[in-house]
Amino acid sequence: MSRTRAEAGGDPGDADASDAEASQAERAHRHRWLILGVLGLAQLMVVLDVTIVNIALPSAQDDLGFDNGDRQWVVTAYSLAFGSLLLLGGRIADLVGRKVTFLVGLVGFATASAVAGASVNFEMLVVARAFQGATGALLAPSALSLLTTTFTDKDERAKAFSVYGAVSGAGGAIGLLLGGLLTEYLDWRWTLYVNVLLAVVAFGFAFVLLIRTARDRSVTLDVPGTALVTAGLFCVVYGFSNAEHQDWGALATWVLLIVGGLLLVAFVRWQERSPHPLLPLRILADRNRGASYLGMLIAAAGMFGVFLFLTYYLQTGIGYTPIESGVAFLPMVGALVFAATLATNVLLPRFGPRLVLPAGMAAATAGLAWMTSLDFNSSYAAHILPMTFVAGLGLGLIVATAMSLGTLGVSVHDAGVASATVNAMQQVGGSIGIALLNTISASAATDYVSGRNPRDPAVRAQAALESYHTAFWWSAGFFAVGAVVTVLLYRSGVPEELKGGAPTIQT
Q1: Domain termination residue (choose one: 277, 300, 317)
Q2: Are residues 171 and 315 in the same domain?
Q3: Which ranges of 2-31 would DSSP assign to H, the alpha helix?
Q4: 186-224 pLDDT tens trace
Q5: Which of 79, 80, 173, 462 could hold 329 in an S-S bridge, CB 3.0 to 4.6 Å?
Q6: Per the domain annotation, does 10 fall within a domain?
Q7: Is residue 93 within 8 Å of 141, Cβ to Cβ?
Q8: Contact, 333 vs 394, CB < 8 A?
Q9: What's the average model confidence in pLDDT over 379-392?
Q10: What is the mean pLDDT of residues 373-388?
Q11: Degrees (nearest 5) of the Cα angle 132, 441, 474?
C-alpha cells in the first residue's frame, strides 16, 4: 500500500500511518472480547467502590479516630466528585481520545486508591476519596464509550452490553461481599488497595489492545457549559447528601437543591445556543435514549433499597456477618447476570425496550414489596432467597436495557458524553435514593419508638424492622413509578439499530 501511494505521488509517511492504524484496528477487532473483559474490570472498580468502603468504615473509623459525624464524608467525597464531573469526563473522552482518557483514568484511580489505603488521618482519606471520584468520572464514560465503538455488530453488541450491564448492576453486591472478605481476613485498607491490583491488570491489556484515536482539533470544550453542569450536579448531589445527615428542613439542603436546579436549567438553555455544546441536546431528544436515562435515574434511587437496607436487615436484624451478608446476595447477582444476558440477546431484539425495561421495573417492584414481609424469624431459603432472586431479575432487565439504549445510535463523536449521561443518571439517582430512603426510614423508626420505651431492646429491634420495611415500600414505589414512566416514554417496537443489518454506531 505504501509503495503504491509513493509511486502515485503520495506521502509514504501517511501511508505508513494508515497501515499502522489498520493494523491496530485489526488487532482490536480480533481481541474485542478481551477488550470487553478489560472494560468490564474498569467498570467493576468504579461501581464496587461505592459499596466496598461502606463495609470497611467502622474499622477505618477505629483506626484513624474520626467521629460518626465525619464518617459520611468518606462516602460523600467520592460521590460528589464522581457525580459532578461525569459529563466533563465524557466530553474529554470524545475530544482527547477514549484510549488516552481511559488509561489516565486507570492510573489516577489506582493512585488515589493507594493514597486512600495508606491514609494516616481522616483528611488524607477524604481528599484521596475525592480524587478517586474525579478520576472515576474520567474512567467510567471512557469505558462505556469504548464498548460502544468497539462492538458495532448488533448481535455482538447485545452480548457485550449484557456482560457490561451485569457488571454494572452487580457491582454493588460484589462490593459488599469483597469488602467483607477483605476487612475480616486482611485489613480495611485492602478495600482500597485492591483497586491498584485491578488497575494494573486493566492498564496492561488496555495499553496493548486499545486503538488510540486522533484528537478532533476542530472541536473545543464548552467551558461555560462545563462550569454550569459541574456546579449544578455538585449542588444537587451535595444537597441530597446533606439531607441524609441533616433534617429536610435545613436551610442548606434547600439552598443547594434550588441552586443546583437553577444551574442545570441554565445549562440546558446554554446548550441550545452553544457552538460546541458539552451535551448536545440531540442526544436527549431521542425518546428511547431519554427514557433510558430517566429509567436509570429512577431505578438507581430504588436500587439502594436492595443493597443498603437489606444489608442492614441481614447484619443487624438477623445477625449475619459481613461475609455472610455478601454471600446472601450472590443468587441475586446470578439472577441479574441471567436477566441482563436475556434482555440484550433475546428480549430487546424481539420485543423492544417498551416491554423489556418496564417488565424489569415491575419485577423489581414485586421483589421489594415482597421484602416488606421479612421479620426476625424469616429464613434465608424460604424467604430471603426467592425475593432477592426476583429483584435481581428486574435489575438485570433494567440496567442492561438502559445502558444499551442509552448509547444506541449516537455518533462516534458523541459516544463519550452519551455514556457519561447514563453513568450520571445512575450516580445522581443513587444519591437521591440514599438521602430519601435514609431520611424516611429514620422517621419511621422514630415514629415507632414514640410512646414506647426506647431502652427496651425489643422496641429498638422492632423500630429498626419498621424502618427497613418503610425503605422497601418506598423503593418498590420508585420502581413502580419507573414502570409507568418508561412504558409511556419508550417507542413501541424494536429500534432499527437492533434489527438485522442496521449499523449501531453512526459515523
Answers
A1: 277
A2: yes
A3: 2-7, 12-30
A4: 888 998 999 999 999 999 988 888 877 666 666 677 888
A5: 173
A6: no
A7: yes
A8: no
A9: 93
A10: 92
A11: 90
Task: Look up residue 488 and give its amino acid.
Answer: L
Angle at 187 between CA 181 and CA 188, to 5 degrees: 85
Q: Are residues 481 and 460 in the same domain?
A: yes
CB atoms within 10 A of CB 507: 8
CA distance 128 to 115: 6
Mean of pLDDT over the chain: 82
Q: Is 361 exposed, middle or buried (0-12, 13-18, 19+ CB in 10 A)?
A: buried
Are 42 and 139 in contact by the 8 Å Cβ rule? The answer is yes
Say how many C-beta atoms besides its own lie within 10 A of residue 8's C-beta: 8
With 80 as the cut, is the pLDDT of residue 405 above it?
Answer: yes
DSSP 215: P
187 phi and psi angles, rounded to 5 deg: -165, 155
Residue from 432, 428, 365 nearest 393 by CA? 365
Assigned C-alpha cell, 50: 461505592
C-alpha cell read off for 315: 447484619
Interval 279-293 mean pLDDT:
86
Cα separation, 293 vs 287, in Å, equals 10
How many Cβ atoms from other residues are within 10 Å of residue 73's Cβ?
A: 19
Max CA pair span of the chain: 94
Report the Cα–Cα distance between both ends of the chain, in Å, rounded. 25
pTM: 0.79
Residue 497 DSSP class: G
Please report whether residue 59 resides in a domain. Answer: yes
Q: Is the pLDDT of residue 123 over 60?
A: yes
How many whole angstroms separate alpha carbon 12 and alpha carbon 459? 82
411: β partners: 506
Q: Do the beta carbons of residue 372 and residue 433 sit within 8 Å?
A: no
Number of CB atoms found within 10 A of residue 217's CB: 7
In 343-414, which ranges are continuous DSSP H helix?
A: 348-351, 353-371, 385-406
In whole angstroms, give the CA distance from residue 288 to residue 489. Answer: 7
Ramachandran bin of 9, using left for φ above 0, alpha for ψ from -120 to 50, beta for the remaining angles: left
- Domain of 479, in residue numbers: 18-221+278-498
Q: Which of 495, 144, 489 is nearest to 344 (CA)?
A: 495
Beta-bridge partner residues of 506: 411
pLDDT of amino acid 2:
41
SS3 content of the chain, % helix, strand, coil (to 5): 80, 0, 15
